[in-house]
Amino acid sequence: MQARELKVVLETSVIYNAGGHELVRDEVGKLIKSSSNHKDLAITWHLPEIVKNEREHQLRQDALKDLPTLQRLERVLGSDFGLSEQTLIERVRERVNDHVKDLKLQILPVDAQGVDWNKIMSDAAFREPPFSPGKSEKGFRDALIVEAVGQLIASSALDCRIAVVSSDKLMTEALVKNSIAAQNLHLLSSIEELKGLINTLVSNVDEAFIEQMKAIAASFFYEPGDRESYIYKQEITKRILRDFASLIFAIPPDQNEVERDKTLVSRPRFREKVGDRMFWVSRIAFRMKAFNESSSSVITTSTPAFGYSGFSGYSGFAGYSTINEESSTPELEALELSNAVSVGPVPPPVFRVSRVPNKIGHVAFDVSWSVVVTPQQQLREPNVEAVDYVETNWG
Question: Whose CA is closest to 290, among 392, 139, 375?
């Protein structure tokens, strides 16, 4: 029996790691390398040429920022490292090409002859997605990615699944509009969602059943305002803060202190089904702020956090929800971890002096959990299987 085919297209927002020196962030690289283990699903990984070039530009700029320091070191040591602007540019390009080869990425070009340039010009003028609304017409790069995906769909077999992973809302809207007839297209906002899709395709479980159970599992694990949700009953956030405090509050280079901000939770992704027990993974991310002596302060008008809302301020967490924190404990207070949410009427705005962080980042963990599903689709005997550190990423 021939293996089913899945083509994955990666966009910049899901592979970028601020401060990293790799073409794709570590989690993505590990997923790509492990994908060859699936015998019944042939996965190929596609990187739009414009995305590859953009990442090369970002890595080049990072390297060039350090060039003056290296040149001063040459003068101090009386040595010639042979580093020039052109040398760094060439070495960054070599490194990017080595990453492409190592990960077996297929570069996805745009056939200029197949592009409807009149439509792109019209979309730019009228600020249609993926172009941003407003005075400036940002979005040409994204328009090229949309074209590349459209050409990939047109050249692929009808039974070939195509997954585009992007947390860019405008790009997703453009893909929906341009590829509305493509029944084999999956638009995913995160690597976690991609992992869930892969696990679904390699399992022997009906896709419709998994999708139905995913909604039930999401409500079971975290329901806004419901203190009977599993995340609260098991005090999962508290346990992570206690057990991984040294990782969460690690101070990045050139900073003096860190402060925890919002706590986010992803929709659960399906991992596997064994008998009547289904296994899920929910990602919990702590938003972090870092400060040093140069951090400035501003006077702001703010209203304390109230209720529940999705979080879209950081594109890498599209589709995440903000967790209303559990009541504080003496241990958490000692670590300045209290992040309580107000209850009752929303208080009036408060004028306050706020420090401006030098860096904003996150620390992420995967919570693996399982639950027995009854014939009536009720969930019984939940269990936390493991909590695994995923990454720390400072923007």
Answer: 392
Tokens of 107: 């570069």
pLDDT at position 345, please?
A: 52
- 103 and 47 Cβ atoms separated by less than 8 Å: no
Of 316, 231, 337, the closest CA to residue 13 belongs to 316
In whole angstroms, what is the distance from residue 217 CA to residue 270 CA? Answer: 9
Would you say residue 313 has pLDDT above 50?
no
Find how far residue 123's CA is from the centre of its chain: 27
Rounded Cα distance, 177 and 188, in Å: 15
134 within 8 A of 76, measured Cβ to Cβ: no
Bridge-based pairing of strands 161-165 and 185-188 is parallel
Q: Is the dihedral of CA 60, 66, 71, 77 positive or negative?
A: negative
pTM here is 0.77
**Taking each helix axis from N to C terminus, what angle separates 140-155 and 49-77, rounded to the nearest 10 degrees?**
130
Q: What is the DSSP letter of 342?
A: B
State the distance between the two ends of the chain, measured CA to CA, in whole angstroms: 46
User: Residue written as tokens 């009386």?
Assistant: 78
